[in-house]
Amino acid sequence: MRLAAACLAALALATPPALAQQAPAAAPPQFATTKVTDNVYVFRMMGHQAMFVVTPEGVIATDPVGFVNKKGGEIFLAEIRKITQAPVKYVVYSHHHYDHIAGGKPFKDAGATFVAHRNAQKQLAALKNPEIVLPDQVVDERSTIELGGTRLDLVYVGRNHSDNTLVIHLPKEKIIFTVDWIPIQAVQFRDLPDGFLPDWFEGFDRVLAMDWERMIPGHPGPGGRLGTKDDVRAAKQYMTDVSDAAKQLAAEGKCLNDEAMNAVKLPKYEGWGAYAMFLPRNVERFCEYWGRGY
Ligand SMILES: [Zn+2]
After folding, report:
1. Residue 196 Cα distances to 39, 139, 199, 217, 282, angstroms
2. b/e map of 204-222 (b: 16 or more CB within 10 Å)?
3. Measured in angstroms, how far is the CA atom of residue 40 from the centroid of ligand 1?
4. pLDDT tens across 187-239, in order?
5. How many angstroms does the Cα of residue 220 sit away from the middle of ligand 1?
6. Do residues 104 and 133 lie in contact, with contact meaning Cβ atoms separated by under 8 Å?
7. For the chain, which domains are there?
C-alpha cells in the first residue's frame, strides 16, 4: 500500500502542467440570465435566483446574490448592462438572509435605492455585516413601485421563513417573486431556521389569494422551472403532513426520541429535493412546536 501511494505521488509530480490544468469538459456555467416576459428577467448565480425588471425609465433589481460568489453583484449588474443602459433605480430585498442579499455594493455605487421590509432593516442594522448594503427605504404591510409603465407591489404576507419576507407582485404580468418559504417540489431547509410556526400557513393562503400565474423562486424548481399556485398548494400540504406526523409523535411522547423522528416517512414526497436529507430535521422542528410549544 505504501509503495502504491508513493508511486501515485511520483506520477502526480510527473504530470505535465498542460494536462494538470485541463478543465473538466462539461462544467456548467455558474450564472445565467433568462427572459420571462418582455420586461421581466431571472438572473441565476449557482442555484440562487433574483428577478429584475427593465423599463424605459430604469431597472428594478432584487437580491444581489453575492454570497455564493463574491463577485455575484458585479456579474449581476454586468448582465443587466447587456440588456439596457437605463439606470438601476431600485434594489428590493426578498428577505434579510445573506445568501440572497450579500454583494449589493456595485448597485449602491450605481445609485440604486435599497428597499426591504422594516424588520429586515432592523435585523441588518444590528448584524452589521460588511457585505450587506443597508436598506434606504422600508415597507410595512405594503408598498408600490411604479416605474416606466411597470408596477410592482411589495406585499408582506406575515412571518414565515423569516419575519421580513416580501412577495413582489407584478399585477399586469401576473408574476410574483418570493424567496425560500415556498420551495418547488422540495422539502424545507434543515430545521426551518429563523422560521415562524404557525404563521407560515397563513402566508400560503394569502399568497394563493393574490392574482398571479407564475412564481419566480429564489432557488430554481426542477429543470429550472418557475412555480405555479399548484406548487404553493403542494408546499402547504407537505408542511401540513409533516405537522400532523409530528403532532402524533408529540401525543405519544416521542418528540425527544431521535430514532422515532428519523423513522417518519412521507413516501408521497420521496421524489422531492432534499427529502432524505432534511425530512427528519423538518419533523424535529414541528416536534418542538407540538411537543413543547415553541
Ligand atoms: Zn432565506
Report:
1. 34, 20, 6, 19, 13
2. beebeeeebebbbbbbbbe
3. 22
4. 999 999 999 999 999 999 999 999 999 999 999 999 999 999 999 999 999 99
5. 14
6. yes
7. 30-292 (3.60.15.10)
